[in-house]
């Protein structure tokens, strides 16, 4: 399944559908990593590791870590989720959230969460000078 997912990623990459291809690469690599852990056959482990290495090379540094958080799970604060990325070298952060400006009750919590995230950045070991928030545009009605 992992190899098939990565083949799909290559097709998407060739079609310039980069965001979708990145997700497929990541899922394929994750599936292959699970296969490495599950098998006791050393030849298969070697084959899976070789494929993982090849696919990671194809990503050319675009691979990112995916963390799956189950519904109602606890213990996933911002510090725990982002600590490995927030080194002293980080000076600028980009956040993309198209829903933060939506007019409904949940948007209040989104803004609150964004505020907590920003506070964590400022208090952390990183030297963040700029935080960018990319969101959706307001729809303007013309009469």
The proportion of residues in beta strands is 5-15%
Report how far the terminal alpha carbons are from each other.
Answer: 53 Å
Q: What's the CATH H-level homologous superfamily of the largest domain?
A: Phosphotransferase system, lactose/cellobiose-type IIA subunit
Separate helix tally: 5
Number of structurally distinct domains: 2
- Overall geometry comes to extended
Q: Which stretches are poorly predicted, pLDDT < 50 over at least 5 residues?
A: none
Structural class: mainly alpha
- Major sheet description: 2 strands, parallel
Helical residues, percent? 40-55%
**CATH class division of the largest domain:** Mainly Alpha
N-to-C series of helices and strands:
HHHHEHE
Q: Specify Rg, calculated over alpha carbons.
A: 19 Å
Average pLDDT rating: 78
In order across it, which strands form the biggest sheet?
1-2
Instruction: Please tally the β strands and state the result.
Output: 2
Please state the oligomeric state of the protein chains shown: single chain
Protein name: MITD1 protein
Pfam family, one: MIT_C
InterPro entries: MIT_dom, MIT_dom_sf, MIT_domain_contain_protein1, MITD1_C, MITD1_C_sf
How does this model look, in words?
- The chain has helices at 2-14, 18-38, 42-59, 78-82, 105-123; strands at residues 92-96, 130-134.
- Helix 1 (2-14) runs antiparallel to helix 2 (18-38) and helix 2 (18-38) runs antiparallel to helix 3 (42-59).
- The protein has 143 residues and is mainly alpha-helical.
- It folds into two domains: 1-60, Methane Monooxygenase Hydroxylase, Chain G, domain 1; 78-135, MITD, C-terminal phospholipase D-like domain (Endonuclease, Chain A).
- It is extended.
- Residues 2-54 form the MIT domain.
């Amino acid at each position: 399944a992992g190899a098939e997912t990565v083949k799909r990623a290559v097709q998407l990459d060739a079609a310039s559908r980069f965001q979708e291809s990145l997700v497929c690469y990541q899922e394929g690599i994750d599936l292959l990593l699970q296969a490495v852990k599950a098998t006791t056959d050393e030849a298969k482990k070697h084959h899976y590791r070789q494929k993982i290495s090849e696919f990671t090379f194809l990503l050319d540094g675009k691979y990112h870590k995916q963390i799956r958080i189950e519904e109602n799970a606890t213990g996933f604060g911002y510090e725990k989720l982002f600590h490995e990325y927030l080194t002293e070298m980080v000076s600028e952060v980009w956040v993309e959230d198209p829903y933060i400006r939506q007019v409904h009750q949940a948007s209040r919590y989104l803004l609150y969460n964004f505020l907590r995230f920003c506070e964590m950045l400022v208090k952390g070991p990183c030297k963040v000078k700029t935080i960018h928030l990319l969101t959706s545009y307001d729809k303007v009605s013309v009469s």
